[in-house]
Design brief:
Layout (H helix, E strand, L loop, with lengths): L2 H13 L2 H8 L3 H15 L4 E2 L6 E2 L1 H28 L5 E5 L1 H4 L3 H11 L5 E5 L2 H10 L4 E4 L8 E16 L9 E2 L1 H4 L3 E4 L13 H13 L7 H6 L5 H7 L7 E4 L3 H9 L5 E4 L10 E6 L5 E9 L7 H15 L10
Parallel strand pairs: 3-4, 3-5, 7-11, 8-9
Antiparallel strand pairs: 1-2, 5-12, 6-10, 6-11, 6-12
């Protein structure tokens, strides 16, 4: 059993066609067939049912595919990391989610370049979830994201929590209310935009759930039953925030990204919650108001590989904390190991 045989098997398993797999791998069809036959002979197992079109994996083939594809991905990651260790790039490639760009990221990059005028920085708009694979492949060296991830290859630090604000159309009856409560927003159409969901189940604080339910019943609003909320985990981030108070929005709409969500708010099609750094966007049509709930926040994480930390990341962290100090933002200084 060798890598050529395994890669040939993965290509056929993915494409369900010898001709397509041969084209993808750059092998001739006879060579590809020979590699697969050698693999099956070595294992004394039939992995591919060749009598169906498209090709099917046998039960043994499905099991082998599930296990070996993970191993091959790890081999590719290790290979990429080894290459970077032997010849590290001088450029610092930074991934970020769009909401971070509206916050302090431009100031942080300017501070970084001020302290090191020779540094080359490349920025890439990429979701929190996609950043994990981009780090492993070497596409980025570090990422600013909004979600915690559990990945054996990745280490992360929490930079800070940013308060959510509610974004309402300027014509909305609550548009000029300076301090908003989630329970008062429950009858509105809530526009959801997150592409990454929370990896954990929602748990509802008992006292707050009961209080929220009492208020909701008084105002004839629809409230989550605590038992069903616990049995059906709510991982959509904005719905999770409402669920913490035992509230379910009356109706929701899901869109592809944050800009589309704010466009719909501007058009009067609903409301949404956004990090406070977004309050400069579409201010002619949108009113941003503070939420009274102190725990309704959006975290900002910094992710990088465990076994390869780019030499310029320590300078980036220094720039981040210097900007925080100048802005009077509370933080706890951390570093990657």
């Amino acid at each position: 059993m060798d890598l050529k045989q395994l890669n040939a098997f993965i290509a056929v398993a993915n494409l369900r066609s010898f001709s397509a797999a041969a084209e993808k791998t750059g092998l001739s069809q006879p060579s590809l067939s020979r590699l697969l036959k050698q693999l099956e002979t070595d294992m004394d197992v039939v992995l591919i049912d060749r009598y169906h079109r498209p090709l099917h994996l046998t039960e043994a083939g499905k099991f082998f595919y599930d296990k070996i594809s993970t191993i091959l991905t790890e081999i590719e990651t290790v290979t990429s990391m080894t290459q970077r260790l032997s010849a590290p790039s001088s450029a610092l490639n930074i991934g970020f989610v769009p909401s971070v760009l509206y916050g302090l990221l431009p100031e942080i990059i300017a501070m970084l370049k001020q302290s090191n005028s020779d540094i080359e920085v490349n920025l890439k708009d990429i979701s929190s979830y996609q950043q994990m694979e981009a780090l492993k492949s070497g596409e980025i060296d570090i990422g600013f994201g909004r979600f915690a991830h559990q990945d054996p290859w990745i280490q992360q630090i929490l930079l800070r929590h940013e308060r959510y604000v509610v974004a309402l159309p300027k014509s909305h009856p609550l548009a000029h209310v300076k301090e908003q409560r989630l329970i008062d927003l429950a009858n509105n159409r809530l526009i959801l935009y997150h592409q990454t969901h929370l990896p954990i189940a929602t748990t509802l604080p008992t006292s707050e759930s009961i209080k929220a339910k009492q208020e909701a019943n008084t105002k004839t609003r629809r409230v989550i039953n605590e038992k069903s909320a616990l049995s059906e985990p709510i991982t959509e981030p904005l719905l999770h925030l409402f669920a913490q108070y035992g509230i379910s929005p009356f109706v929701t709409t899901t869109v592809s990204d944050l800009q589309v969500a704010l466009g719909l708010v501007a058009a009067g099609e609903g409301i949404t919650l956004v990090p406070a750094s977004l309050t400069t966007v579409r201010t002619e049509q949108i009113s941003y108001q503070r939420l009274v709930h102190e725990n309704v926040t959006s975290p900002i994480y910094l992710h990088t590989l465990k076994d390869f930390v780019h030499p310029s990341i320590s300078e980036l962290l220094n720039a981040i904390y210097q900007v925080y100090e100048e802005r009077g933002i509370t933080y706890r200084r951390q570093k990657f190991v």
